[in-house]
Structures are given as structure tokens and as C-alpha cells.
Write a structure and sequence with these properties.
alpha/beta, Ubiquitin-like (UB roll), Alpha-Beta Plaits, Rossmann fold, 5-stranded mixed β-sheet, binds iron/sulfur cluster, binds FE2/S2 (inorganic) cluster
Length: about 675
């Protein structure tokens, strides 16, 4: 715990942790210090000077974003002289900025506009300077209009800190410009189109490409939710207008290392209103899929499930909500009465690794271990884990990468252990024991004969000193990694490749009969597939029910299609990889006749004569099952080695190819 510092800001008593800057300290007391270049969480550069304040006893004025609080400090954030200086700075900035507020998309949320309003500046007193820079609108995601740029460098810093490092300044002074390397368009610059820079830009210089005359912020309804497209389960803020989706921004807390979403989370929403949606139930008649009424489709599904005589299987993705997973689990056990129910999580994780992973806080992690994982913003494998890890490293955390193969993150690691991961955990354990950490007999004897290489020694030294260390590991390494928690206080998190794997596994969607792979290989009378499962060829089954939001390859081969709402049209919760329960709120109404998974299953259960009841209490208790760690052999669980990049593309295929992301795929393939 850091020390608390007491000070006075505008005569208000303020108590904040040591190391806080004056802008944040004032904000915590409800006092806003105007600022243009400050971006909470990132390194302050003190460029714009809008945040000048008066500190009693200090020479001249102090820069609020750079000055750290001190015990007994007395700060004034506004005096006639300070206001005069702010007015002068704004006047200067406005002389180089288009006065376009009438048609500017950013009006209403533009910081420059707000401060000009606060200071009552209508026109600049300086001679206007027009640059006439070309606009970069060569991609369907982000429009860059340098004429609006106020050179605050927020975009440069946010992109650098997360490791994508696409933007920088060219030139000096007022003639400076934010550019990519060689001033190329974004798609030729290594940009991942995550849009972090768009979220950071205080003016209209960086904006979603399709926003022109699609409404301003005050026209939008905002819904806080979570993205379900990969194992990270990022916070999102969804903007809608007239019942339609307009844009998605990161919903992460300001200043948090986790404030990030990737291009899928930000731009994949086009798919929700695309032609690829299944919006009405369909049944196969004389070999052809035909639209049907809900009753007809559900009656047929019910009849086939009843007649299947136990030869039934249910497969699902692990990207469905907890409430849907709970009902699906009940549907399998109480209605269909089958033990054959499994999810795609079984392709990469053992159930225990999902159930017993710790909860972790990225923002306090001071030593991060990435083991057997290769998170990457570029290949879009756990991109948010990649971005937040790099941010933590930029903010002073140490990174240990343990991987027998090459990884993207190794370039920013303090220690790289390029060896068998399970053996590395054994060596680190031995090194921790020799540093005085207590081990039980089983663990001590398992590592007693080992020699410890230098890298493992270094990793152990970092872990022994760390205040808040976290191991993020591939689920196959969970048991080996968890042994470290028997020696030192550490969080061990097995990272899944789907948003709610921790939730669906805890809720019982793990098979006691046939596995996901066994069911997909055929032989059942009825197979019921829920969500966009990555199966393209119809399994050899007598009857196939597909409950999906999109017309997937598998859906095209189904006997019955039940249209499901997407996550932006559903509500419930997920448990993301960090163990956080995240609310998924409905942002728009379900397309056509589609319904949330659980509602389809409940209706079907009624037709089948055994109605399911939802139970929030039972669901909650499923998450409370905990297991005390005990020594397990330092081994990697075999058979869980799917390619995460291919898997992600397969489960998100409909979203990618029915949205502007298809353009990105094409550009990347050509490159
Ligand atoms: S979209 Fe992302 S990667 Fe591209 S410039 Fe902006 S912050 Fe950097
Ligand atoms: S593009 Fe936006 S965020 Fe980047 S320097 Fe210019 S005004 Fe700042
Ligand atoms: S990183 Fe994953 S969860 Fe986050 S926005 Fe991207 S796809 Fe969604
Ligand atoms: S916000 Fe402090 S100098 Fe810009």
C-alpha cells in the first residue's frame, strides 16, 4: 500500500496516494484542472501548459500533470493570472484549428470546444493559419484529419505504450505533424486498427471513418457491456441511435492498463445488421432450408430430440453468457437427459484450470509471467492481454516470458526463458525454495535434483521480491504454474481463448459423456449445436439442430436452424479471464425473430414437457466452488494445443466476413 498524502486544493482538504499528480488529485476532489495533453495512466509530457496551477512557496507556476502531490501542499487551480494564461494558450491553439463546430462530429465532446466555451473565446486574436494537410481516409475504420490536430501527442503515447508504435511526430513546433513511418496510410504502417488513438484524441483529428453526419455524442444512447469475441472479454461502451448501432468504444476505466479494445471489438458490430444474420427459424423440407414459424421449428426439434433414444449430443461455444450456459446445462441434464454436453473450451482447457484460476488485477501487477502464451495484437490472439501487459511494462512492471517457441512479447521482457514451460516452473520453484520459501515435502522432493539455469534464477528473484505478481499461463500449464503459488503469494490465471470459458465450465458445461471432438466426429442420432461453433462440415448425424446468430457453414447443412440474438442483443454476465464478472447489457433489440439462447431453450423445454426454471442463486453458487492448491506434477497437459489464431478466426468468421473487418483480412493477405 502506498502512503497517503494530505494537501489542500482550492482550500479543499484532499487525501491521495503518494505519487499522484495534481490533475488526478484535484479530480478526486471534484476539481477539474483544464488540460489538453494529459492522458491519465500514460507518461505526462507537459506540452500544452493548460494545466498550470499555483503552488504556495513554488517559483512561478507549476505544471499540474507533471507535479506530484506533497504533504501539506497548498494549491490554487484558478487565479486571474492562471485564467489569463489559459486564455492565451487556447487563443493560440484556436488560431491553427478549423472553427468548424457547426458541422464537426466531435462537437459536444471536444475538449478544445469546451475550454473555448468556458473562456468565452469565439474567434482567435491571432492571424489564422491554415495547413491544408491531406486527410487519410483510405481505410474503412479510422479517418485522420491532421488539420484538426492540436499536437497533444495523446495518440502517439497511447499507441507507443501498448507497443503498436505506429505514430510519431514529424517536424517541430507549430509545423509538427503526427505521422506514420514514411507518412504512409495507416494500413501500410503496421496499424492494427484497434482505435485506441481515436479514444484518446480530444478533438476531431482522429475519428471513426463512418461517422460523418451519423449523429453526435449527445444523440446517442450509451450502453456499457462486454465484447465476447475472444478470451479477453473487454469492457465496451456501445453507442446507438434510433435503435441502430453507431459505434463501439473501449469501456475500460480511464487510466487503466486494460482500457483497450481491438478492431473486432470496435468494428465487428457491422455484422449484427448484415445479410449473414439468421433472423427467422428454418427447417429442411425436401432437402431445402425453408423459413418456418417458431412453433414449427421447435416442434420438429422436440420430436427429434425425444425420438433420439439417448443418442443425443449438445455442443456449444464458450462465448455464451452465464445465464444461457446455466439454462443449457439444465436443458442437457433435465430435459434431454444426456451427459453428452461439451463446449469448445475443451479444445484448449481442462475444466479445473477454468474453475480454479485466480482473479487478478492487471493494474496492480508488478511482475507478470506469460507462460506458454503468445498474445499478439497483430495476429489478434488475446490482443487485450498483449496491450495491457505492454502498458504495465511501460509503467514499470517486469515481464517474464516462458515459452518454448517464439513470442511477440519477448521483445519487452526482462527475463526470457526459451525452454519447456513446465520444466521452467519446476526450476523456478527450486530457486524460490533456495531463497528461503517454504515448500511441502511433495514439492520439495519433486525439484530437489534439478539444476537451475540463470534465467530461471532471475525469474525467481523477481517473483520473490514482487508485491503483486501474476502468472498468465496456457490452460495446459495450469497445474505446473499453480505450484508456484504454494511457495509465494501469487495469482495464477489460466487464460482461455473464449470470453466466458470460466463461466460456462463452472456452470457445468463439461462433459461426463462424449467430448466435443467425439460428438463432432459423428455417430449420434441428434446433434444440437449452440453458437458459432467452428465446425464447417456436417458431422455424420441423423438430425442436426443449429442455434446460431449467423448463417454459418454448419447452419447451411442443418435440419433445423433456430435464430439466436448476438451478444449486443442479449443480456447477462460473463466471467472474463481475470475472473471479473462483467455485465453484458442489451444495446439493441434482437434482429428479426431471433431470441436469446436461454429463451429458445426454455421454450423448447416447455414443448418437451419439462420447463426449465432460471435460478440466479444456483448460478451464483456454481461460481463459489473453490479448491485449495496442492502439489501436482510439473507437467503440461497434452491434447490442448489448438492454434489460437485459427480458432479465433473460425469462431468469429461470420463477424469478420460480414463486417468491414473483411477489408482488413484482404489487406493483410495481400501484404
Ligand atoms: S489504431 Fe491502434 S495501432 Fe493504429 S495508430 Fe491507432 S492506436 Fe496505433
Ligand atoms: S491526432 Fe488527436 S490525439 Fe493525436 S496529437 Fe493530434 S489532437 Fe492529439
Ligand atoms: S481483445 Fe478480444 S474481447 Fe477485447 S475487444 Fe478484442 S475481441 Fe473483444
Ligand atoms: S495537460 Fe499538463 S501540460 Fe498539457
Amino acid at each position: 500500500m502506498s502512503k497517503t498524502v494530505s494537501l489542500k486544493i482550492d482550500a479543499k482538504e484532499v487525501k491521495v496516494p503518494e505519487g499522484t499528480n495534481l490533475i488526478d488529485a484535484a479530480e478526486s476532489a471534484g476539481i477539474h484542472i483544464p488540460n489538453l495533453c494529459y492522458l491519465k495512466g500514460t507518461r505526462s509530457i507537459g506540452a500544452c501548459r493548460m494545466c498550470l496551477v499555483e503552488v504556495e512557496g513554488a517559483k512561478g507556476h507549476s505544471v499540474g500533470c507533471i507535479t506530484k502531490v506533497k504533504e501539506g501542499m497548498n494549491v490554487k487551480t484558478t487565479t486571474p493570472q492562471i485564467e489569463e494564461m489559459r486564455k492565451f494558450i487556447l487563443d493560440l491553439v484556436l488560431s491553427m484549428h478549423p472553427l468548424d463546430c457547426m458541422t464537426c462530429t466531435k462537437a459536444g465532446v471536444c475538449t478544445l470546444q469546451q475550454y473555448a466555451y468556458d473562456q468565452g473565446i469565439k474567434e482567435s486574436n491571432f492571424t489564422r493559419k491554415k495547413f491544408g494537410y491531406p486527410v487519410d481516409a483510405a481505410n474503412p475504420f479510422i479517418k485522420r484529419d491532421p488539420d484538426y490536430c492540436i499536437l497533444c501527442a495523446r495518440c502517439v503515447r497511447v499507441c507507443k505504450e501498448q507497443g503498436t508504435n505506429v505514430l510519431d511526430f514529424m517536424g517541430r513546433g507549430v509545423g509538427a505533424k503526427v505521422v506514420t513511418a514514411m507518412d504512409k496510410p495507416l494500413q501500410e504502417s503496421g496499424c492494427t486498427f484497434c482505435g485506441s488513438c481515436v479514444d484518446a484524441c480530444p478533438v476531431n483529428a482522429l475519428l471513426e471513418a463512418d461517422r460523418w453526419r451519423k449523429g453526435r455524442e449527445w444523440d446517442y444512447t450509451k450502453t456499457k457491456s462486454a465484447c465476447l469475441s475472444c478470451g479477453n472479454g473487454c469492457d465496451i461502451t456501445v453507442s446507438t441511435k434510433d435503435g441502430g448501432l453507431v459505434k463501439i468504444n473501449s469501456g475500460g476505466e480511464e487510466g487503466s492498463a486494460e482500457k483497450y479494445i481491438c478492431a473486432i471489438g470496435r468494428f465487428g458490430f457491422d455484422a449484427v445488421s448484415s445479410d449473414a444474420r439468421v433472423t427467422v427459424p428454418m427447417v429442411r423440407v425436401n432437402g431445402e432450408l425453408k423459413e418456418a414459424a417458431w412453433k414449427e421449428a421447435l416442434d420438429l426439434a422436440s420430436e427429434k430430440l425425444k425420438a433420439a433414444a439417448g443418442s443425443t449430443g449438445i455442443i456449444s461455444t464458450a462465448g455464451i453468457l452465464n445465464q444461457d450456459a446455466f439454462v443449457l446445462s439444465k436443458f442437457a441434464s433435465d430435459v434431454v437427459r444426456t451427459k453428452n454436453v461439451d463446449t469448445t473450451a475443451s479444445l484448449y482447457a481442462e475444466a479445473d484450470s477454468m474453475k480454479f484460476s485466480d482473479s487478478a488485477d492487471m493494474d496492480s501487477a508488478d511482475v507478470i509471467v506469460l507462460a506458454g502464451l503468445n498474445p499478439s495484437q497483430w495476429e489478434r490472439v488475446l490482443p487485450a492481454l498483449d496491450a495491457s501487459t505492454r502498458r504495465r511494462v511501460a509503467r514499470g512492471a517486469k515481464l517474464v516470458v516462458i515459452n518454448s517457441g517464439e513470442t511477440r512479447a519477448s521483445s519487452v521482457a526482462t527475463v526470457n526463458i526459451a525452454a519447456d514451460e513446465a520444466s521452467a516452473f519446476a526450476q523456478i520453484s527450486k530457486a524460490l525454495i533456495s531463497k528461503g520459501k517454504k515448500a511441502d515435502n511433495a514439492l520439495a522432493s519433486a525439484v530437489s535434483g534439478l539444476t537451475v539455469p540463470e534465467d530461471a534464477e532471475k525469474a525467481a528473484a523477481l517473483l520473490a521480491e514482487a508485491k503483486s505478481p501474476v502468472i498468465f499461463c496456457h490452460p495446459s500449464l495450469f497445474n505446473a504454474a499453480r505450484n508456484i503459488s504454494l511457495l509465494t503469494d501469487i495469482k495464477v490465471v489460466a487464460v482461455p481463448f473464449e470470453a466466458n470459458a470460466r463461466g460456462v465450465v463452472s456452470l457445468g458445461l463439461t462433459t461426463e459423456g462424449k467430448t466435443y471432438n467425439e460428438m463432432v466426429s459423428g455417430g449420434l442420432n441428434v446433434l444440437y449445436a449452440v453458437g458459432e461453433v467452428p465446425v464447417t462440415k456436417r458431422p455424420d448425424v441423423k438430425f442436426l439442430i443449429v442455434q446460431t446468430s449467423y448463417m454459418t457453414e454448419l447452419a447451411k447443412q442443418a435440419d433445423v436452424i433456430l435464430p439466436a440474438s448476438t451478444c449486443l442483443e442479449s443480456e447477462g454476465t460473463i466471467i472474463n479471464y481475470l475472473g471479473k464478472v462483467k455485465e453484458v447489457e442489451k444495446a439493441v433489440e434482437p434482429a428479426g425473430e431471433s431470441k436469446q439462447h436461454k429463451n429458445i431453450l426454455i421454450e423448447l423445454s416447455k414443448i418437451m414437457g419439462n420447463p426449465i426454471k432460471e435460478s440466479a442463486a444456483k448460478m451464483k453458487s456454481a461460481f463459489q466452488v473453490k479448491e485449495k492448491p496442492a502439489f501436482k506434477p510439473f507437467e503440461k497437459k497434452q491434447g490442448l494445443d489448438i492454434d489460437p489464431s485459427e480458432f479465433n478466426d473460425a469462431v468469429n468468421k461470420s463477424v469478420i466476413y460480414s463486417s468491414r473487418l473483411a477489408w482488413l483480412k484482404e489487406v493483410m493477405t495481400e501484404a
